[in-house]
Amino acid sequence: MVIATVRRVARVMEGGSLILGAICLFYMVCVVGVNVLARIIFDATDTAVNLMIPGAIEQVSYLLGIVALAGLTASMAHGMIAVDFLVARLPSLGQALVARFWFIGMVALALVLTWLFYEDMLATYARGEDTQDLRLPMFLIYGLYAAQSLALAIVALREVLTSHGDHGEMT
User: Fold this and answer.
1) Cystine design at 69: which of 51, 122, 148, 169 (Cβ 3.0–4.6 Å)?
2) Cα(first)–Cα(last) distance of the chain, in Å?
3) What is the pLDDT of residues 119-170, one digit of tens each?
């Protein structure tokens, strides 16, 4: 019952992370591409035409954290990718135990990140902090980071409960 619920929630979290990561990555590529072309025009016209996107570096830098966390969450669907000389020689039970130990560490790391980003979200909300260029509320960014870290923790928990030691490069 508990494992089935964790699996169901983790599947939703993986899907959400994959969609969020894809949207953010697509947006990042578009912003960088447009800015590169705009910079070429800017230089070719001797600074007369400036089509660069305001705050592009800021946008991309904040989205990069979301993309990294979303990618890590979504990538756990098929187990961890490992280059292991020793673990591959273990019996299947030993491989499962090593994998579960690894995912326990991932759960702990993700929960610590969730807590830290949540605390930053509360602190930046209380102070009313905004981003430097675009004046976006910082608590929204930290809130997304906290949500992605929580998604990572849930997916890693599912792997702790269900992992058989299979590796992503073998499936």
Assistant:
1) 148
2) 27
3) 999 999 999 999 888 888 999 999 999 999 999 999 999 988 887 666 554 4
